[in-house]
Amino acid sequence: MRIKYTVCFVFFVALVIIEKENNLISRVSDKLSLKQTPQTPLQPGGFSQILRRHNVPATTLNKMQTALTLMTRRLENYSEPQKALTAGRKHILLLATTRTGSSFVGEFFNQQGDNMFYLFEPLWHVEKMLTLETGGTNATAAGKAYRDVLQQLFHCDFSLLESFIKPRPVDHITTALFRRDSSHSLCEDAVCSPVIKGLYEPFRCKNRRCGPLNLTLASSLCLRKEHQTIKSVRVRQLETLRPLVEDPSLDVKFIHLVRDPRAVLASRMVAFVARYKNWMQWAKDGNVPLDDDEVRKLKGNCDSIRMSAMVGLRQPQWLRRRYMLVRYEDIARFPMRKATEMYTFAGIPFTPQVKSWIQKNTKNSDETSGPYSTQKNSSEQVEKWRFSLPFKIAQVVQNVCGPTLKLFGYKFVDSEEMLKDKSVTLIEDKVFNFT
C-alpha cells in the first residue's frame, strides 16, 4: 500500500514540474515573438489620432475606413513569424560629415534594387532632440544614443528611433520621418499607404503618392531584404560603434567617406550661408581671428575625423576587414572603379541598376547640379572649390587641419597662384589598405 501511495505522489509531483516547465517555455516563446516583431500592428484609434492632430475634417475620417482596412490586411501579410537572418546578410554603415558627397555615394547603395534596405540619416532625429540650447550636443550622451539607435535599426527595429521623432508616432505611424523620400525602400508598395487629403507630410515620397509611414510595415519589409545600408553624417568617433561589430547577429562593415577639409568648408559656405556668415565676412576682409569659436570648431571636426580614421586604418582586431576609408575625390574621378571596390569590400553583388545609375549621374551639366543634388559631373566637381575659396581661408584650414590633410593625402598650397592653377592637382595618389 505504501508503494502505491509513493507512486501516486511521484506522479503528481512530475505533473506539477511539467506544467511549470510548459509555462516557462510559453513565457520565453512570447518574449521571443515580441523580439521578432518590434512594432505592433496599426490600430484604428491611433490612426484617427494622427488625422485629428492635423485637423483633418470628420468627413475625411469616415472615408479613411476603407484605406485603414487595406493597410491592416497588408500588415497581416507581413505578420507571420520572421525567419532568422541569413548567413549572407550584410550591414553597411556609411560614415561621413556634411558636404563630403555622402548623399551622392549613398545612392550607390540606395540604387541597389529589391535586395537592399537603405536608410538616409535616421540619426537626424536623435541629434535634433539632443541638441543643447547652445547649439551643440553632449558628445558622450549623443554617441551612446547614436550607437543604440543604429544597433536597433540594423535589427530592423524602429522602436527606439520612434522616441526621438517629433511629433511622436501614434501606433508606429508617422508623417515626419526625415527624408523618407531619399530611401527607395520606404516608398515601396509594401509601405505605401493611401494618400490622405489635407494631411501635410514634410518628407513625403516624391516618385509615387504615399500616405503616412507605418513603421511596423517598414520593419517587416526590412527583415525581408538581403542587405542593409545606413548613411549618417553624425557619428564622430568610430570606437563608439564597437558593440555593433561585437553583436553576433550582425555583420557590420564601415565605409568611411572623407573629403579635403578646404573643399568641405567651401561647400558649407555655399549651402549654409546663414551659419557661415562670419566666414563670409572674414573672406571679404581677409582677416580671420584664429581664436574664434568657429575656427576652434573647425579644428575639432578635423581632429575627430582624423582620429577615427587612424583607428580604422590601424585595423585593430575588432575592425579587421570591417573598415574601408575612401576619399570623395577618388570616387568623383573614378566612380565605377571605386563603387566596384566598395561593393567588393561589403561582399555584395554589384548590380546592373547601380552601374546604370552611376553612368547617368556622373556626367550631368552644371544646370542640374545644385548644392543638394546627387547629380554631378563628378570629375569636374572635384577641385571646383579652389576657384571660390579665398586663399586666406584656405591658409586657415591648412593651419588647423594640417595633420588631417597629410593623413588623407591632400597637398598644401602656398600661394594664390598655386590655389587657382588648374594644371596643379592637390590630390596625391594614395592607397588606403582595408583588407
Helix count equals 19
Structural class: alpha/beta
Helicity range of the residues? 40-55%
User: If strands are numbered along the chain, what order do they take across the biggest sheet?
Assistant: 2-5-1-6-7
Q: How much beta, percentage-wise?
A: 5-15%
Give a short account of the largest sheet: 5 strands, parallel
Low-confidence stretches: 1-37, 74-85, 365-370
Radius of gyration: 26 Å
Shape: globular
Distance between the termini: 76 Å
- Secondary-structure element sequence? HHHEHEHHHEEHEHEHHHEHHHHHHH
Mean pLDDT: 82
Count of beta strands: 7
List keywords for this structure.
disordered N terminus, two-stranded antiparallel sheet, 19 helices, alpha/beta, globular
Question: What is the topology?
Answer:
Elements: H1 2-36, H2 44-53, H3 58-77, E1 90-95, H4 102-110, E2 116-120, H5 124-130, H6 139-154, H7 159-162, E3 173-174, E4 213-214, H8 215-224, E5 227-232, H9 242-246, E6 252-258, H10 261-271, H11 277-285, H12 293-314, E7 323-327, H13 328-333, H14 335-346, H15 352-361, H16 378-381, H17 391-400, H18 402-408, H19 416-420
Parallel strand pairs: 1-5, 1-6, 2-5, 6-7
Antiparallel strand pairs: 3-4
Helix pairs in contact: 2-3
